[in-house]
Amino acid sequence: MLRAFRDAFRIPDLQRKILFTLLLLAVYRLGSAIPTPGVNSAALSQADSSGLFGLISMISGGNLSQFSIFALGVLPYITASIVIQLLTTTIPALEKLSKEGEEGRKKINQYTRYAAVALGAVQAVFFASFINSNAAYIAVGWTPGLFTVLVMVLTQVAGIAFTMWIGERITEVGVGNGISLIITAGIIANYPTEFSNTAALVRSDPEANWVIRLVAFGAVVLVTIAGIVYVYQAERRVPVTYARARGGVAGQARGATQATWLPIKVNQAGVIPVIFASAMLIIPNLIASATATRAPAVSAWLQTNLVFGQPLYIALEAALIFGFTYLYNSVQFDPKRIAEQLREAGGFIPGVRPGTPTAEFLGSVSGRLSLWGAVFLVVLTVMPQLVQSATGITTFQFSGTGLLIIVGVALETLKQLEAQLTVRRYDGFISKGRIRGRLNN
């Protein structure tokens, strides 16, 4: 795959696509330096953020901590995509649209954009109200009030729309999935600052065995990346046999069969269960803030036990990840529908009868893979918290979720580059064959 990335720079067309992608990503990162009107970015960046707020800030490349014009990034679009994707399997009208080919896909994408803008507006109101409630977060020359909130919300809605446009342009004209590359760029953008902070931490106390801690920390990161690559590409290939049409290919007996397989990935849900779990665990923090004056004992207990890194927080997060993994996989992978499609196409699994037995077999396979996928996500989420506590290195945000996104996007982008190189080689081979044929004639 790395050879595909190297060879891509030798083809002018792919060079232009890569440069166009990098240019739009640079425009997006430039927006992180432009604060939202009325916001004191310096004061807001000092605010403590964890849970979902920390996840949003990580995905947006620190835009939320400064509340830049791209503060919410692509999170509303991701949320809208997940919601529309889930509704497609439950609402007949959307399911019918999804089966209408390119036109249906365009309609669903349009609904997703509208939903993203609506969700982004709601989230912008929430964050703008939070900033407006603290006069220290308001910039000089601005006063807390409805006008300030309205300006912040309109700025964020415009930023969300522009971010979606950048992502779609990268997907259409550039290389890779635009939204995924924007998320990856936001995560990687935090690394230089975190490396610098880690180096400053080591220099501040050179006698604290930081070298051993850093080596152990780096070894765990490398092992984690290797594990992500292995699990990301792991899949269960269920053998499927299709009956050929009678009198199809000359020289073959009638009723011959063609063998293939049905791939089922171990981690079908990706990082979606982690995002959902983080969103649920932000609720206790909101309750603690709301009950600080009326029920101080409840608020103190929540802020002590249900915070990032505490045993109860880790246990609840693991349970929620398990639950959301099974829920998402059950919605996305429908054994009955796949069994019906196999039967209509004349396919069957060797040793398994078509119809209900096939659906039960696929359901059991998917259930076992969902278990291992959930275990993988739990380990990927919990291990960084334990490693940071053991090594004391908190300046570098070692996030399993971030690494999973980076590795997944990198693998998919390299695969797309490899596919485009293969197509060009194939086209070149055909063109040479046509020229030779004309010369021979």
Looking across the biggest beta sheet, what order are the strands in? 2-1-3
* Helix content estimate: over 70%
- Average pLDDT for all residues: 79
Report the principal-axis shape: globular
Q: What characterizes the major β-sheet?
A: 3 strands, antiparallel
Q: Any idea what the radius of gyration is?
A: 25 Å
Supply the number of helical segments: 18
- The ordered string of helix (H) and strand (E) elements is HHHHHHHHHHHHEEHHHHEHH
Q: Based on DSSP secondary structure assignment, what is the total number of beta strands? A: 3
Q: Determine the structural class based on helices, strands and strand pairing.
A: mainly alpha
Q: Which band does the percent of strand residues land in?
A: under 5%
Low-pLDDT residue spans: 246-254
- Termini, distance in Å? 40 Å
Structure description:
The chain is mainly alpha-helical. The protein is 71% helix and 5% strand. The protein has helices at residues 2-8, 12-31, 41-44, 52-59, 63-66, 75-88, 92-98, 101-132, 146-173, 178-189, 191-204, 210-233, 272-290, 296-305, 311-332, 335-344, 356-391, 400-440, and strands spanning 235-243, 257-265, 347-348. Strands 2-1-3 form a three-stranded antiparallel β-sheet. The longest helix has 41 residues, at 400-440. It starts with a helix and ends with a helix. Mean pLDDT is 79; it is low at 246-254.
